[in-house]
């Protein structure tokens, strides 16, 4: 659908957990889709449908039982440097201050943090609106601020692909909206391929270029929906008729199996 | 008039709260002393606090110091040995299913063996040097450290382990940078429990074979029915235990304040 190069490709990917023969769970069943470079994709689906598993497959943390996952046309066989991870919980390190948390990936991967890393970390803290918090302890930050630090940490090595697993779902509704817009602004300033997992239809529609809607277990693709909303998006987008129409459509789709 | 009393009342409440633990002890000792005198309890059954003080003064400072040093030395060596052995074992147990299926049951069996019962055997096997006493102390102290540290290492958030994997960091760094620091609150509570157990271990060992130490001293004095001297040694043991415990707390507060339990 775009001329942009391909970033992520799933070809008939099936993920089964547990021993064959024993008790096993099919988490994903025959997933096929493409994600273009610097596309913002949301994955929406009921709990337990395999969204986190999908992310782990892209991250190279688990290998598919069947099928092929590739990044830039190369099959994923191990975690790659192009990837940044953000989780539902900020999971920062309470024994470090904010700046050291952001530079932690360097320390962890290479065993040292140089001056350039610190400069970049400070820039990223500016990007997430925490310039003045570099030397604060983690416990002094609110949940929203901690998640911003986690985002800065994921961006430190300037990954081309950002994987986010329900990053805002532990936040209160107001902070959540604020963070959505902030993420959009970060994404505009530093274009990346984003795979964004969420339970929130509004979040998915507001943020994404396309939305992958999944079926309940075993997770399959129900539908891949393009979002026909102009960018940059703002608070006004939330009251755009196209926004409401798409949101309602997805809601009906997700709940239809309960009715049928 | 009543208004003027309010600051005094607040002052009393404040200081009462601050000194409540000390006051409790002082009251208990007073009751003890009074009970001994009023009911005329025989001195060889329950010596009064004042008689214990008299007992303490019967020995020279040098004697006390030598006995304290002997016990503290054994307790400390056994304790350090337990830490040095337990933490690597915990890392192994936390990382390897094979080790937790093979070594862990073994540790449980060792821990379930009453140390007091095998202590005489250990002394026969290892001789009468400090070695068997250190080993007995080790046996009593290591298990809480292993179990609690392993639990701490396993309690590391899964996300951080995945972050580590996604960075393709080495297993050693995963343990050093993430798992061990995350386990520190657990490790420190284990160290506190084991600090007092170390004194228990040293005393048990001294009961069985020693010619110095507070445990040996208690055994010796009580065999001569000098109960007040035994009690004096006991007070010292309790004090040493408390100090040991406090020192660990202080180390935690100084070097890893973030690992302290959160106050409400
Ligand atoms: N490592 C694993 N071993 C065994 N089963 C697993 C493993 N990881 C996931 N599963 C199973 O796979 C299914 C999908 O899990 P997954 O975490 O991907 O769902 P999810 O869509 O992210 O759910 P949620 O919205 O609740 O986060 C679940 O049934 C889960 O129990
Ligand atoms: Mg999930």
What does this structure look like?
The complex is a heterodimer of chains A (260) and B (264). By secondary structure, chain A is of the alpha/beta class. Chain A has two domains: 6-82 and 160-258, Rossmann fold; 92-158, no CATH class. Chain A has seven helices and ten strands. Chain A has helices spanning 51-59, 98-110, 115-127, 143-155, 173-189, 201-207, 241-259; strands at 6-17, 25-36, 40-44, 66-71, 74-75, 83-86, 161-165, 193-198, 210-214, 221-226. In chain A, the strands form two sheets. A six-stranded mixed beta sheet of chain A has the order 6-7-8-3-9-10, with helices on both faces. In chain A, strands 2-1-4-5 form a four-stranded antiparallel beta sheet, with helices on one face. The longest helix of chain A is centred in the C-terminal third of the chain and has 19 residues, at 241-259. The radius of gyration of chain A is 19 Å and the shape is globular. The two termini of chain A are 32 Å apart. The relative contact order of chain A is 0.17. Chain B is an all-alpha fold and 264 residues long. Chain B has one domain (49-257): MetI-like (MetI-like fold, Orthogonal Bundle). Helices cover 84% and strands 0% of the residues of chain B. Chain B is flat, with a radius of gyration of 24 Å. Chain B starts with a helix and ends in a 9-residue tail after the last helix. The mean pLDDT of chain B is 91. The interface between A and B is medium-sized, with 22 and 20 residues. The complex binds adenosine-5'-triphosphate and magnesium ion. Adenosine-5'-triphosphate (ATP) binds next to β2 and α1 of chain A. Residues 51-52, 165 of chain A line the site of magnesium ion.
């Amino acid at each position: 659908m775009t001329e942009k190069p391909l970033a992520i490709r799933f070809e008939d990917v099936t993920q089964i957990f547990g021993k064959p023969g024993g008790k096993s769970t099919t988490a994903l069943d025959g997933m096929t889709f493409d994600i273009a470079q610097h596309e913002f994709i949301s994955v929406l689906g009921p709990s337990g449908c395999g969204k986190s598993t999908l992310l782990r497959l892209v991250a190279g943390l688990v290998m598919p039982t069947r099928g092929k996952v590739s990044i830039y046309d190369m099959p994923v066989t191990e975690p790659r440097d192009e990837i940044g991870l953000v989780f539902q919980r900020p999971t920062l390190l309470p024994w470090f201050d904010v700046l050291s948390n952001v530079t932690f990936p360097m320390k962890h991967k290479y065993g040292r943090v140089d001056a350039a890393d610190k400069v970049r970390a400070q820039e990223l803290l500016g990007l997430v609106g925490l310039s003045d918090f570099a030397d604060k302890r983690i416990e002094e930050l609110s949940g929203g601020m901690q998640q911003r630090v986690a985002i800065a940490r994921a961006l430190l090595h300037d990954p081309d692909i950002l994987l986010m697993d329900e990053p805002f779902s532990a936040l209160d509704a107001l902070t959540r909206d604020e963070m959505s817009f902030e993420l959009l602004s970060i994404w505009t300033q530093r274009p990346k391929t984003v795979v964004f997992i969420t339970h929130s239809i509004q979040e998915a529609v507001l943020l994404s270029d396309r939305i992958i809607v999944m079926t309940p277990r075993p997770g399959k693709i129900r539908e891949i929906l393009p979002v026909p909303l102009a960018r940059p998006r703002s608070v006004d987008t939330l009251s755009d008729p196209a926004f409401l129409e798409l949101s309602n459509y997805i809601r009906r789709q997700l709940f239809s199996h309960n009715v049928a | 008039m009543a208004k003027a009393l309010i600051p005094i009342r607040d002052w009393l409440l404040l200081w009462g709260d601050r000194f409540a633990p000390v006051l409790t002890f002082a009251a208990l000792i007073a009751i003890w002393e009074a009970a001994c005198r009023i009911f005329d309890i025989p001195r060889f059954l329950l010596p009064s606090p004042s008689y214990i003080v008299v007992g303490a003064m019967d020995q020279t400072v040098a004697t006390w110091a030598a006995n304290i040093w002997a016990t503290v030395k054994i307790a400390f060596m056994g304790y350090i040995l337990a830490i040095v052995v337990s933490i690597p074992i915990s890392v192994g147990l936390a990382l390897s299913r094979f080790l937790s299926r093979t070594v862990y049951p073994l540790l449980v069996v060792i821990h379930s063996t009453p140390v007091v019962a095998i202590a005489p055997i250990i002394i026969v096997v290892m001789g009468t040097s400090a070695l068997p006493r250190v080993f007995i102390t080790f046996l009593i102290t290591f298990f809480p450290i292993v179990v609690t540290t392993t639990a701490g290492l396993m309690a590391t958030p899964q996300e951080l382990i995945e972050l580590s994997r996604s960075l393709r960091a080495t297993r050693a760094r995963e343990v050093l940078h993430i798992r061990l620091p995350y386990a520190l609150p657990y490790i420190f509570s284990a160290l506190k429990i084991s600090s007092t157990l170390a004194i228990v271990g040293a005393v048990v060992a001294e009961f069985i074979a020693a010619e110095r130490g507070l445990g040996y001293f208690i055994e010796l004095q009580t065999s001569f029915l000098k109960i007040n001297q035994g009690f004096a040694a006991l007070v010292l043991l309790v004090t040493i235990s408390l100090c040991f415990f406090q020192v660990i707390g202080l180390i935690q507060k100084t070097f890893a304040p973030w690992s302290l339990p959160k106050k409400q």
